[in-house]
Write a structure and sequence with these properties.
Shape: globular
CATH topology: Glutaredoxin
Radius of gyration: 15 Å
CATH architecture: 3-Layer(aba) Sandwich
CATH superfamily: Glutaredoxin
Structural class: alpha+beta
Distance between the termini: 36 Å
Number of domains: 1
CATH class: Alpha Beta
Strand content: 15-25%
Number of strands: 6
Order of helices and strands: EEHHHEHEHEEH
Length: 145
């Protein structure tokens, strides 16, 4: 069972993009100012099969603010309904995270878990190697080509 609560100012459990942006308007500023790599956006637009991306984040975490806000912009620009996103907010205290991330081996946030057909194919953990959009394309392309 997943808990969905608002803890103090932070969001825990399943949340939506709208929940996050309403509770943390400064994330919207980061999202607006992010300029994604256009070639990667075009590749994400062209995906013609279902991809699930589960994002474990901390609304208290500066890396989550930076990279999840960027992801919001990427997904908005990609306009691909086959890329399905879900978000789980977790507490700052590691010993309190288990109810939210059972069995997912989450050490750092944000963690983007990319899956095809309910099978994990890759992760972006804390910081992307290139950019969020380029790393997503690399993970997805590595499994389909």
């Amino acid at each position: 069972m997943m808990l969905s609560i608002y803890g103090g100012n932070d969001l825990f459990g399943p949340v939506t993009k709208d929940n996050i942006l309403e509770s943390f308007p400064e994330w919207r500023e980061v999202m607006s100012s992010y300029a994604p790599q256009e070639e990667a956006i075009e590749k994400l637009k062209a995906i013609d099969f279902a991809v699930e991306i589960e994002i474990i984040l901390g609304t208290w975490c500066p890396d989550s603010k930076e990279h999840v806000s960027a992801y919001f912009k990427i997904i908005e620009l990609a306009e691909n309904p086959l890329i399905v996103s879900s978000y789980i907010g977790i507490p700052k205290e590691k010993e309190e995270r288990e109810p939210y991330v059972q069995g997912k081996d989450i050490q750092r946030v944000p963690t983007f878990i990319v899956s095809l057909n309910d099978e994990e194919i890759g992760r972006i953990i804390e910081h992307p190697e290139k950019s969020v959009e380029e790393d997503l394309v690399d993970i997805i392309e590595s499994k389909i080509y």
